[in-house]
Each structure stands twice: as structure tokens, then as C-alpha cells.
């Protein structure tokens, strides 16, 4: 009798465990395609945090899985459009012919007044109010937008004037910095960020335009000795986190809304804060490696300001081509920045 009772209790426990396991198992695991090293902030901070948000918001029905090296950085949006990966992060400059509206937050201000977190918030709000209508992200769902920290001039040796870099081979990544590099009269070399360390160490280029974070995340402090620092940076790079639309629409409406609730402005701010924090890490890595941070001279700043003034009107023209009120969008963006300070 006692054996029968124990057997019954064991059977009941197994049934309860089995039922719990079925309920706990995720209905969907989203495949995230990523690039950059495992130590990059996107991989150490953004994906794990967003993954936790998604799992909590969907009550465990949706989880994420990060996969590396599914494709080169410049083809990541195609990876998601084609469904090879379901979520990724893209640098808009890799598809400069396609993305023009995204150059708005890249235009230099030569002012340190805003963090990447606040700029990313203003960027997302401007996208929702204006830029979304330009349909540059057709084929994918935009989950977040961000800009990295102030892009600076990172070189092997010191730069005391713009004459020091005329004709020099400098790596550029696309976007607004491509126009700025031309004005600085350098020889632009287009190569993915993941190849910059190799390009500098082998003498293929004399330097690059990137933020402080690259000194650590891409180990540039090991191969470059100097960063010429401009207030607010020479540019800001524009990024997005995008999702395959079929993947999103394949989820229940409740889970679609749950994912959107932990994306958008919330994810954009996380993305931006990651850049801020990574810049601090990169600066410390530079100091530890004996890297020199040289302030740009007033003459260098004045020369660059003059050459970048036409970028705003150029952006207005791009906006008009996409049937966007460029001046209204521009003013809205900077108003949002001021309110966030």
C-alpha cells in the first residue's frame, strides 16, 4: 500500500515537472547576428540586457541567441532581410548610397554638450516624427537607433595642423565622415572597423576616424599613438538595431507589442549609454598604453567648421528628395536634444 502511494506521488511529481517544462520552454528563439569582438559593448551589454527585457516582457515565450560572424559588417542588413539572421546592428555608413536621412546626427556640432545616450533618444524621437517616412529601412523593422561617441582622428603620430595629414591614407567608414575626409584632403581608404587594427599595424593606412571606444574594443591603442581631439568630435556614426519583419509578424500580437515595449526609445538609450561607457573604457585603455590625446588647435577647429558648414544644406536636399521636411526635422532633433539636457 505504501509502495503504491509513493509511486502515485512520484508519478504526480513527474507530471507536474513535465507540465512546467513545457510551459517554461520558449516558443521562439530569435537569432541575433552580430559583429565586433565579444568584448565590444554591443555584445557584452546591449544584447544580454535586451534579451533579458524580451524574455521578461514575453513571460519566457521569446528568448534570444547571439551568433557571431554570420556575415561581414557591411552586409548585416542583408543578412536580416534574407532571414539568415533575425536581428542585427548596422552602421548606416556601410550603405551610404541607401541611407541619407540617417546622416542628420552625424553632422558635427563641435560642442560637448550632449552624451550619446541623449543624442540617441532625440534621434529615435526624430525618426518616429519625421525620418521614418523616408522609408530608408524598408524590408526590416527598426528597433532602435543610436550614435557612437565623438569620432576623432586616431593616428600613428601626432597631428599639429591639418597640413600634417594632407595626402595621408586614413581609414573612413562611410557616411558624413567621407565628405569631411575629402575636405581634410586625405586619401580615404574604405575598410570595415574590424580590419582597422590590421590596416594600421601593417601600414596600409596611417590612421582612422573613430571614437575613443575603438582604442579598447578594436585594440587600436596598441597600434596607434595619438588621438587628435575635437570638441564634440569630427562626426558621430549612426547605427540601428533592425529585425526581420517576417520574424516579428510571426509572433503573437501580444509578443510583438511586448518586444516593441522594450525596444524603441528604451533600447536606443541603452545603445547610446553603451557608447558613452565604452568611450570611458577606451580612454583608460589609451592612457594605459601610453596613448597621447592632443587637443585640436583653434585653427584646426576653425578650418574644419568652415568646411563642414555645407553639410546641413546637403542634408536638407537629401531630405527633400525623400519628401521629408528637412528643416523641420533638423529643428525638431535639436529641440529634443536641448530638452533632454
Task: Give an overview in words.
The protein has one domain (89-341): D-Maltodextrin-Binding Protein, domain 2, CATH 3.40.190. Helices cover 45% and strands 17% of the residues. With 341 residues, the chain is of the alpha/beta class. It has helices spanning 2-24, 41-57, 76-81, 116-129, 176-183, 196-201, 214-217, 245-249, 253-261, 264-288, 298-308, 310-321, 326-340, and strands at residues 28-34, 62-68, 87-91, 140-147, 152-155, 169-172, 187-190, 207-210, 226-229, 238-244, 292-295. Strands 7-6-8-5-9-11 form a 6-stranded mixed beta sheet. Mean pLDDT is 91; it is low at 1-23. Helix 2 runs antiparallel to helix 10 (264-288). The protein is built from 13 helices and 11 strands. It holds the Pfam family DctP. InterPro entries: DctP_fam, TRAP_DctP_sf. Keywords: Signal.
Blueprint of the fold:
Blueprint: H1 2-24, E1 28-34, H2 41-57, E2 62-68, H3 76-81, E3 87-91, H4 116-129, E4 140-147, E5 152-155, E6 169-172, H5 176-183, E7 187-190, H6 196-201, E8 207-210, H7 214-217, E9 226-229, E10 238-244, H8 245-249, H9 253-261, H10 264-288, E11 292-295, H11 298-308, H12 310-321, H13 326-340
Parallel strand pairs: 1-2, 1-3, 6-7, 6-8, 9-11
Antiparallel strand pairs: 3-10, 4-10, 5-8, 5-9
Question: Which strand-content bin applies to the residues?
Answer: 15-25%
Question: Would you tell me the overall average pLDDT?
Answer: 91
Quick one: how many beta strands? Answer: 11
Distance between the termini: 74 Å
What's the domain count?
1
Structural class: alpha/beta
Q: If you consult CATH, what is the topology?
A: D-Maltodextrin-Binding Protein, domain 2
* CATH top level class name: Alpha Beta
- Biggest β-sheet description: 6 strands, mixed
Q: Strand order, biggest sheet?
A: 7-6-8-5-9-11
- Overall body shape: globular
Going by CATH, the homologous superfamily would be: Bacterial extracellular solute-binding protein, family 7
Tell me which CATH architecture applies here.
Answer: 3-Layer(aba) Sandwich
Helix content: 40-55%
Radius of gyration: 23 Å
The ordered string of helix (H) and strand (E) elements is HEHEHEHEEEHEHEHEEHHHEHHH
